[in-house]
Amino acid sequence: MPDTVQMRSGYSANAEIVLDHAKQTLAIPESCVEFQGDSTFVYVLTDSVPQQAFRRQPIEVGMSDGIKIAVKKGLTLQDKVRGAEKKND
Prior knowledge:
It contains no helices and 5 strands. The protein has 89 residues and is an all-beta fold. A 5-stranded antiparallel β-sheet has the order 1-5-4-3-2, with no helix packed on it. The protein is elongated, with a radius of gyration of 20 Å. It starts with 26 loop residues before the first strand and ends in a 16-residue tail after the last strand. The mean pLDDT is 88.
């Protein structure tokens, strides 16, 4: 902070700290990812007729913002990933 700026007590401020960022990265909703031990998986659509069929696909993930997670390996832009399962209460 420069010496010419004075801080007064009782004031507050909001700040956003960026620890890392990624450009042109494949990202999916984190709720689509299955975490098991130190492994991560998604379910990729393999067939849709007569009903949907999926295969469990291991993936390597990167950083997450808590909503979306970066996928480093295991998926392409053409893959269709199953969303989170809805649970009836």
